[in-house]
Specification:
This is Stage V sporulation protein AB. By secondary structure, the protein is mostly helical. It is 83% helix and 0% strand. It has six helices and no strands.
Amino acid sequence: MVIEAILIMFIGLGGGLAVGSGFVAFLTVLGIAPRMTQLTKTEKSIRVYEGAIIIGAQVGTWASFYSFSLHLPSLLLIPIGLASGMFIGMLAAALTEVLNVFPLLAKRVGVTDKIILLMMAIVLGKMIGSLIQWIYL
């Protein structure tokens, strides 16, 4: 029983270290925060972006340990959801800009002249999938 608990603790610690290392590598090697500041033309606020990412990761980690509810009014959840979605979208846009995902994908598929349609299809697909998950699941 004690050995099983110790084993679970080591597995959890190892998993946390692996995910944390991957997150740090993602942010530093790819230069996500600097690219986000370039896209939004807010280079002077890079420390704010970095601090927000670090604090968000810490708060999210600690929040995952506890079960709690904020009991907010439904109308207040709309701007919170919009802000969260915009942040995730900006992060994804910065990542695709860094990696040049869309031009490579369009070249491989052979639709370089329809890259705007490809991007809109991906965006609409993600949006419809999210709505289906939130409404029905």
